[in-house]
Amino acid sequence: MTQPFLIDSHCHLDFPDFTADLPQVMARAQAAGIGGMLTISTKISTFDAVQHLAQTHDHIWCSVGVHPHEADAEGQSATPERLCDLAMQSGVVAFGECGLDFHYQHSTPQAQEASFRNHCQAARQADLPVIIHSREADSQTAAVLRSESAKGPLTGVLHCFSGGQELAQTAVELGFYISLSGIITFKNSVPLREIITTIPLERILLETDAPYLAPVPHRGRRNEPAFVADTAHYVAALFDVPLDALAAQTTANFFRLFKKAQSEKTKNSHPFNCE
């Protein structure tokens, strides 16, 4: 039986956690049916390493952006113009991750919001999606999304979603996607599961956020792209759909959102038809 084709829509393969065994990590992902990975930029200063992964692997794409934790240090330098220039390089299919994180507040709220809005402006200018990190900032994130969407066409994804119903509904109404990580499998995530089942499957993506947030039954271990298969099994059961159907839908959703990912690689290189 052929394994379902899955996409890990958010991971951090450039992080030191993968330095010692990245080839083995990639092999395990392939064996688990993970046919594509989007590795995410968190700092402009480390973008070259992120892009190198996309340039040297057929089924890895990347983003360019500044994580909200880094907004004080790098947010001002990540102007819309610079972000757009970097996004022209091969393998880059999105901006981010950017957004608001008021849990740790490693950067000031003002710097985080300014950087967030710069990424949204770049996304409109380049016609690429924006990858959004939001933690303990639901109302503020929703306000920025409404404000920025009013300025022109804008789309993207709320990655590693753990927010409330209002933010989820606002995102969907504005044409954004919701990405589910291993958090959805955690025992204490009952409220999150109740929210997620109100979201159309046509707006759902899957991710690991590796090396963080390994799903059950790997919780407590380093996360890696192969484990998105475990999250997929869980989400398929949550929505009461066959795993093949869940895989096909979330993969189609990925390519609908990250349109440049399709054109970056030849269609013949993909082991499935993603039209």
Tell me what the structure shows.
The structure is a single chain. The model is unreliable at 266-275 (pLDDT under 50). This protein has an eight-stranded parallel sheet. Helix 6 (138-149) runs parallel beside helix 7 (165-173). By secondary structure, the protein is an alpha/beta fold. Helix 2 (47-56) links the parallel strand 2 (34-39) and strand 3 (60-64). The protein has helices spanning 22-31, 47-56, 71-74, 80-87, 109-126, 138-149, 165-173, 190-196, 228-239, 243-257, 259-264; strands at 6-11, 34-39, 60-64, 92-101, 130-135, 156-158, 177-180, 204-206.
Main beta sheet, described? 8 strands, parallel
Report the oligomer: single chain
Number of strands: 8
- From the alpha-carbon coordinates, what is the Rg to the nearest angstrom? 17 Å
In which range does the helix fraction lie?
Answer: 40-55%
Number of helices: 11
Category by helix and strand content: alpha/beta
Q: Label the overall shape.
A: globular
- Element-level helix/strand string: EHEHEHHEHEHEHEHEHHH
Mean pLDDT: 94
Distance between the termini: 22 Å
Low-confidence stretches: 266-275
* Strand adjacency order, main sheet: 1-2-3-4-5-6-7-8
Our estimate of the beta-strand percent is 15-25%
